Amino acid sequence: METTVLKKIWLSPPHMGNNEEVYVKEAFDTNWIAPLGPNVQRFEQSIEEFVGNDVHAACLSSGTAAIHLGLQLLGVSAGDEVLCQSFTFAASANPIMYLGASPIFIDSEEDTWNISPILLEQAIKDGLAKGKKPKAIVAVHLYGMPYKVDEVHAIAQQYDIPVVEDSAEALGSSYKGFNCGSLGDIGILSFNGNKIITTSGGGAMLCKDRALKEKAVFLATQARDNAPHYQHSHIGHNYRMSNVLAGIGRGQMEVLQDRVDARRSNFEYYIEHLSGIPGITFAMEPKGSYSNRWLTCILTPSFEDRERIRKALENENIESRPLWKPMHAQPVFEDVISYVNGVSEALFEKGLCLPSGSSLMEEDLERVCNIIKKELR
Ligand SMILES: *Cc1c(COP(=O)(O)O)cnc(C)c1O
User: Fold this and answer.
1) According to CATH, what is the number of the domain 20-253?
2) Which one of the listed residues 135, 148, 195, 350 is annotated catalytic?
3) What family does the database annotate (predicted)?
4) Is 195 a catalytic residue?
């Protein structure tokens, strides 16, 4: 008997375009193997052109570094409180801890699965009542779906609290015609290996104020004062992106819209083939929102169904993953104050991220759908 090994289908693998190696080779040929260099500038320019809305981009070593710097630039320091979406990846919240500040986690609303404006305002009012105004808000466009920007930002403005817009998963998404990453006081992007485009590791901080970008770059390059010797008046970081990796980023920007189109078409395929199954639901775009559909997620009828599907896929060499476990339910954040409404816990219980890479073939999608249909029959 012949045994055939089924082709592995990954959740969200890297997908290179045509010119990444050309730009990396340029870095080698010119010996720009240092951090900084022409690829970094060109990558920043192409991000600024794509995102538009007058943003300046500072390329950094990771999205996490971008959140850390962003919060620092907004003045978050030891003892402060920062309101953070609970339903997210831990990297949205960890930098709050790096600064010695305390996160307060805010649960989600059901339409976009992102930060609930109602709970957000509640938390702000409670903070003010105890004489402690939150220093910043971290809101996340999870899985590429824009959060309720108008509502969240109206509250932020009313109480004069700056917003870090975590667009790590949402490059190529937009809200009412404006690209995600350009909407908050500070926006952040990630180019980690699983994101819609990747530099293998990297991130960017976006802001409207050129001086703020320059300050970010200053802090990201060890906060060196302008002197011939090494002199420091501030504590810096080593957070700048390497010129080699920025070469990958330049190539990836050339195919970004293709990657968005491919992921959106994966979503369309899943909708067409799975939405007829009783109990399977998807998060749909509210009017005015455009999601890059970084990952297609389904909600199943129950935890048991979710696990059965996940294991059946795994048995056929297909990677899928439960939705993010909310931060307020993480052991490490056990003692953190949270505003909870049950939404993110239900999503975590019943939700599954399906293979969503931009290089998926129709036959791959068909394999995934057939297994899910079989398990739910
Ligand atoms: C990936 C991710 C980050 C962190 O980005 P890195 O580049 O991996 O440090 C932050 N927030 C969210 C929501 C993410 O998905």
Assistant:
1) 3.40.640.10
2) 195
3) Belongs to the DegT/DnrJ/EryC1 family.
4) yes
At 327 the pLDDT is 98
- State the first-to-last Cα distance of the chain, in angstroms, to the nearest integer: 30
Q: Give the confidence band of 2 by pLDDT, cuts at 50, 70, 90.
A: low
What is the rounded CA–CA span in Å between residue 146 and residue 74? 22
Question: Does the beta carbon of 89 sit less than 6 angstroms from any atom of ligand 1?
Answer: yes
Cα of 258 vs centre of ligand 1, distance in Å, is 22
CB contact at 8 A, 260 and 292 = yes
Q: Is-contact 63 203, C-beta < 8 A?
A: yes
Q: Is the minimum distance from the CB of 63 to ligand 1 under 6 angstroms?
A: yes
Spell out the residues 6+ positions from residue 72 whose beta carbon is closer than 8 angstroms to its own.
99, 219
Residue 5 confidence (pLDDT)? 79
Domain ranges within the chain, ordered by starting residue: 20-253, 256-375
What residues contact residue 53 under an 8 Å CB cut-off, 6+ apart? Answer: 178, 179, 182, 183, 208
**Structure confidence by residue, pLDDT tens digits, 300-320:** 999 999 999 999 999 999 999
Kindly state which CATH superfamily the domain 256-375 is placed in: Aspartate Aminotransferase, domain 1 (3.90.1150.10)
